[in-house]
Amino acid sequence: MAVTDDGKDRKECPICRSNKLRSSLHFYKAYNEKINPDGLVNYCKKCLHDMIEYNDDKEPTEFSLRKMLALINRPFIYSCFNSAKKSQNDFLGSYIKNINMVQFRLLGYKNSNAPINDNNIFNDNDVCGIEKQVIDDFKITTDMISRWGSKYNKKQIMDLEKFYQDMLITHTIVTPQHKKSLVFICKIQLKLDYYLETDDMGNFTKLHTQYQSLLTSSGLRPIDTIGGDEATGMRSFSHIYEEVEKDGYLEPREYTEKQDIVDKTIMYLLNYTLKSVGKSKLIEPPKDTPKVGVI
């Protein structure tokens, strides 16, 4: 059916202010009805293309693409970026086509997984004010860069670091091998969260199996956590019972209690009383003698 030009089937681009035909010829498709109820990106293709900058090698810059994606609240997916760069004719069209695949089409810019090299561009639609403030206040240290590398954005490093520090508190991490395994576990956890958010249950299931195997081999399962009593030097009955089950019953060693000056004084007074009534002397203090200190 032909589209009539009566003004109702036209859409104005907020950048160029042009009133263009409401079709995929002038506007990219969008699938998030909350943001784009008409199924089209709000900005025209020409204006979005003009926002993309290219380096000396005629490759699109990640920075310019991310600025544009933040504007339309679409995610920066690193694999899609690399794939679109191979396009000979239409880089942006290829990228938009990639992120319009089922696993990406409902994602916003906050779900991006790009390296941190542009000071984390956000707009008001990306992250709520409180979360954005938390991310802005988070400081990335040289230790974090050394631990996680430069592949992740600021939000991802914050999530990785929080999980890492929580695991250090709840588990015994001593050897370099433990720390290396923990880094792998944190990175896999981040991917699992991403697959879960994007409903990619196929990759989630595959990776979760490897995740559980790594947790088991590293001794970092939830069951391997340090209890609060154990961390303070106290052991619960369940811990003692586990040791008995493991090592069997151990005969306690013989213990001889030393007498202090109070014990001897009490015994002296009692012996004086017993002597006065013709009774036998005590050779050790009574069992209920109060203990004060050991000499």
- Which structural category do the helix and sheet elements fall into? mainly alpha
Distance between the termini: 105 Å
Number of strands: 4
Stretches where pLDDT is under 50 for at least 5 consecutive residues are: 115-130, 228-235
Q: Strand share of the residues?
A: under 5%
Helix content: 40-55%
Main β-sheet description: 2 strands, antiparallel
SSE succession: EEEEHHHHHHHHHHHH
Strand order of the largest sheet: 1-2
Number of domains: 3
Q: In DSSP terms, counting alpha (H) and pi (I) runs of 4 or more, how many helices?
A: 12
Radius of gyration: 35 Å
Average pLDDT works out at 77
Net shape: rod-shaped
Which key phrases capture this entry?
single chain, about 300 residues, mainly alpha, 3 domains, two-stranded antiparallel sheet, two-stranded antiparallel ribbon, rod-shaped
What report would you give on this structure?
The chain is mainly alpha-helical. The chain has three domains: 10-111, no CATH class; 143-224, no CATH class; 258-287, no CATH class. 47% of the residues lie in helices and 5% in strands. The strands form two sheets. A two-stranded antiparallel sheet has the order 1-2. It is rod-shaped, with a radius of gyration of 35 Å. Residues 115-130 and 228-235 have low confidence and may be disordered.
